[in-house]
Design a protein that fits this description.
Layout (H helix, E strand, L loop, with lengths): L14 H38 L1 H14 L7 E4 L8 E4 L5 E4 L13 E8 L15 E11 L15 E9 L26 E6 L1 E9 L17 E2 L19 E9 L1 H7 L7 H4 L11 H17 L4 E9 L7
């Protein structure tokens, strides 16, 4: 009788098949890891950019919000209390925009404009007036390039140089704007001082403050100023009074240029403002018109990029709610 035949052989992979499979697996794993790495890098860079300019974004919101609350409280009165001949607009308050660092405006020359005005803020050092949110205060914003030793309440002489957006606030009880008038305090020297300033944000390298009429009324953007300058006390006794006399502009275009901390660490290393940044603004933003402003922004972007500076521009038009200019 013939015995049945049984086979002990089993199907399996050859060494070549295992090597091929391993190679494919390693290639897929490498591709996956590369994709994850690229995604992680993009996410990290995006997060770094957001955090790098978070302070500038917050400062931009604070500045535009406070600027929109500026008030003038203008009224009509005789031109002379003794020999009146006509009615003119008058106000004890003041709105002034001018080059930073040009007396009496504080700041570092070449960093754009400084702006000073009055607005209800309720800031007081007297507990008697606490809770009165509509008390009037004086506000000012400008950019300083300095080390930490020059900051308020700083005692240690550290050598960390930075561009800083500064905010100046005068308490209600020390509001010096009432100590002058349109003729004796034309430039606000009696109420503008830098003794009560604080840092709003670091690495803000330029601020353009542009008083304008509404774009629907002034498409060119140069009806109120051609140099970004504005002074509500200028020519208040002229006949006829200019639109700017004792009045707020209808709108103000605010533009901040910020750099990231990495660029600041690279270039802000001495007491002199770095040429890689300051030179990028040389000759720009001197003429305030829509076409020139757009051209200057393009030139600025090219120069900052060429100098290896990482930057961002924040800009908006702020309606001045208390403006009565027609």
């Amino acid at each position: 009788m013939r015995k049945p035949c049984f086979s002990n052989s089993h199907a399996g992979f050859t060494i070549l098949e295992v090597l091929v499979a391993s190679t494919v697996f390693i290639m897929l794993l490498g591709l996956l890891m590369s994709t994850i790495s690229q995604t992680s890098t993009v996410t990290r860079r995006a997060t770094e950019k957001v955090s790098a300019f978070q302070g500038a974004r917050s400062a931009f919101g604070l500045l535009t919000s406070k600027l929109s609350q500026a008030t003038m409280n203008s009224y009509w009165d005789y031109d002379s209390p003794t020999t009146p001949t006509k009615y003119i607009r008058k106000s004890e308050l003041h709105f002034i925009v001018g080059p930073a660092g040009q007396d009496p405006l504080p700041g570092t020359s070449g960093t754009g404009q400084a702006v000073f005005f009055q607005a209800p803020g309720g800031v007081t050092g007297d507990a008697t007036y606490s809770g009165m949110d509509n008390l009037l205060n004086a506000y000012g914003y400008y950019i300083d390039y300095q080390d930490e030793a020059g900051l308020p309440f700083q005692t240690a002489a550290t050598q960390v140089y930075r561009y800083r957006l500064m905010q100046q606030v005068a308490n209600t009880e020390s509001l010096g704007v009432y100590s002058g008038n349109a003729t004796s305090d034309l430039n606000g020297s009696k109420w503008i001082s830098g003794n009560n300033s604080a840092v709003v944000a670091e690495n803000i390298v330029y601020m353009a403050i542009w008083p304008r009429k509404a774009t629907s009324e002034d498409s060119a953007g140069n009806a109120l100023t051609t140099t970004f300058a504005y002074n509500s006390r200028l020519n208040v006794t002229s006949s006829p009074q200019p639109d700017t006399a004792n009045q707020l502009p209808p709108t103000v275009q605010v533009t901040l240029v910020a750099i990231d901390e990495t660029s600041a660490q690279r270039f802000c290393t001495s007491s002199s403002a770095p040429t890689q940044i300051s030179s990028a603004f040389s000759g720009l933003f001197t003429t305030s018109s829509v076409s020139q402003f757009e051209s200057d922004l393009e030139t600025l972007a090219q120069q900052m990029t060429a100098n290896g500076v990482t930057f961002r521009v924040f800009t908006t038009i702020v309606p001045m709610r208390e403006s009565k200019m027609q």
